Structure prediction request, 338 residues.
Amino acid sequence: MLALDIFLAYSGLVNKQVSPAYAAALVYNSSDAISDVSSPKITLSPETTPSPEATLPFSVSYPTQRWGISKIDAPKAWQISGDDQSIIVAVLDTGIDKNSQDLAGRLVAEVNFTDSTTNNDVYGHGTHTASTIAVVAPGCKLMNVKVADDAGRCEPLVVARGIIWAVDHKASIINVSLCMESSPDLEKAVNYAWEQGVVVVAAAGNRGKSQPVYPAYYVSCIAVAATNESDSLALLSNHGDWVDVAAPGSDTYSELPDNQYGYKSGTSSAAAHVSGVAALVFSVAIDTNGNGVINDEVRQAIENSCSPIGATGVGKGRINALKAVTETLSPSRPSPDK
Prediction:
């Protein structure tokens, strides 16, 4: 079949060249909350690869299609972090499929802040995000905080309520793979999370621009751009001096509702990789400055250990899980600021 060049002019995307496979399922909605590029669902079971690290104290395997896992050296980081099951990552999204085979036994709490009649993931975005986090951090637990409805729409006030709920229910990391307009309530919620010792990770957005999005732009948030397998900026990823780090986000293979699998591309998947690494770092971090929390040490380790790449507007570079957990064991530099 001949490849065709398709140009999009939607939601600020003008003359962005993409393949037909991407264009067929490009998802944008009126709130711009979710804007990942998706492939059609597939039902084949993923081929799995055992971790190459023979000294791991627990059994881990992951689909060979999940190239981001090896790119960020996660298997080597697992040797240091171990199978810590005390770290909770709250996934603020469209819900999580409770029947997912990848996530069975990982959910510790759930809440629904939308007008949907179910906590489950009808839209398909939240399960994909949660599964990506879970494979980066094999021991972590997950919190299903549904703040986007079954059409993928959300509002800043609802997300703010979700953040506060997650903090009050003992999440260590909050993943917000959503983009929206700024609001005082949203910023207060992000600041509250940081003050309580929680790391908030947010997607930088998928318009291919340098214009900030929220909550990623807030100082108390780690803003994440997306990279591809070549360590270049991923197609349509936002970028700029307000971005803190980059992570694998192109062609991310992960679980979808009803035990199906598929690919999504975007900063949502990139943020999920960072949240997974944050969980690994939390498992080994200590309070080196005596302020009573360790989220500052965790963020410092993630940002200071990034691998430099050729792309601009990606903050410190592309995350590296092994270097991050090692950095945590030997902290030496001040906490990062936007």
Observations:
- Confidence is low (pLDDT under 50) at residues 1-32, 39-59, 333-337.
- Residues 73 and 317 are 15 Å apart (CA to CA).
- The first strand starts at residue 6 and ends at 10.
